[in-house]
Structures are given as C-alpha cells and as structure tokens.
Amino acid sequence: PRRIRKCIGGKGASAIRKFIADGGGYVGVCAGAVLATQKAPTLDLLPFVRCIDDNIWWASGIEGDVILKRPPKSHCSPIDKNLSLAFVPNKRGTIHAYHNGPLLRIKNGKNKSNKHSNDTKPIALFYGDVNPWKPDKSVTKQPQRGQMDGTIATVSGTYKNGRVVITSIHPEFLDDNTLLETMCLYASQISLSTIL
Fold it and tell me: Which among 8, 76, 133, 152 has the fewest CB atoms less than 10 Å away?
C-alpha cells in the first residue's frame, strides 16, 4: 500500500478524495482496502477503520481459501444488507480467495480531527483461518492461527457524499464477477435491490 500511495502522490490522493466527497464511489480490494483506512500514508476515507497487524499479515505470504459469514443483524443497515448477502448468500458461510489481505477493525466513537460521524458497518466476517495454513517461514513475525476468526473482512461506509466499500478478499478471482459488480454498484449508489 505504501508504494501505491506514493505512486498516487498528493495531487492524485486529493483528486480521489474530491471525487468520492462529491458523490463518487471507492472499491478497495486487499491493498486498496488498506489505502482507505486511517494509517499514514493512506487516503483516510474510512477514519474509523484500522488494520490489525497489517504488516504481519501482508508479509505472511498466506494465501488460500477463507470462509466468510454475515455479521449479526444489528450491525447491518438495510442499505448494507444486500451487499452483505452478495458476500455471504447463505447462513453457512461462503468460500472466497484470500491473498495476505488486511484484517479490519472498526473503532467506536467520533473522530475529533474531522468530525466525521461513524457510519462504518461490517459487511462480512472471517470464519476460521485460511486453508491451507502456510505462512512464509522466512519472515520473523508470524500471524497467529485463530486470529482471523471473527474479525472483519469487508466494511462499508461513507466519505462525505460518496460511498466506500473495502474488502480483504479477492472477488476478482471468482469465476463469476457478480460480487465485484455488486461492490461497484453499491459504491456508485445504485440501488442493489432493483438489480439483485
């Protein structure tokens, strides 16, 4: 993410923020998800979202399948329900491709620096660990088995007048592009209920 942010530069980051603030959308996958969180250098689109030990998970080299499950109903707004259903269409969970993406956490409260209200919602949670569990043995800090279980894999929120959705998984690796299309439609504020 640091190299991506450096390539974007100050003017590029300002243009992206302005586009979203004016009602545009942002879809972040893996490193793109990290870019949307609050950690320098990022775009800081979702100031209440943090990555959990992102340097450890990023360097881990872990890739494989993960199961996602829906968050408790109380955490998902009606607008976000269809997005959550696209990630996890059944109650048993759904298998997705994982390639050392971030584990996400939503911080409670109000952000004092920009007075942004916290409308950030979990869309999908990790259920269990990556399968197969094969972290890169050459890295000094290893991710802990069991740490993924119950953490957030996908988050939605707003940045001023725009909508943001970020995910740790790789929906572009699915045979069917429906999930990635749904993320894009959601971010562009097109009603998913009329399409799904």
Answer: 133
d(CA 141, CA 126): 21
Contact yes or no for 30/170 (Cβ under 8 A): yes
Overall average pLDDT of the 62-75 stretch: 88
- 70 sits in the region (left: phi over 0; alpha: psi -120 to 50; else beta) called beta
35-51 pLDDT tens trace: 999 876 789 999 999 99
- Provide the residue type at 33 as one letter: A
| Count of CB atoms situated within 10 Å of the CB of 60 | 18
Q: Which residue reads 């959705």 in tokens?
A: 165
pLDDT digits (tens, 9 = 90+) for 132-180: 999 999 999 999 999 999 999 999 999 999 999 999 999 998 888 999 9
Whether the CB-CB separation of 82 and 196 falls below 8 Å is answered with: yes
Please state, in angstroms and as integers, the Cα–Cα distance from residue 91 to each residue in 33, 66, 85, 130, following that order. 25, 15, 9, 19
Residue (of 120, 132, 140, 127) closest to 33 by Cα position: 120
Number of H helices, E strands in the chain: 5, 8
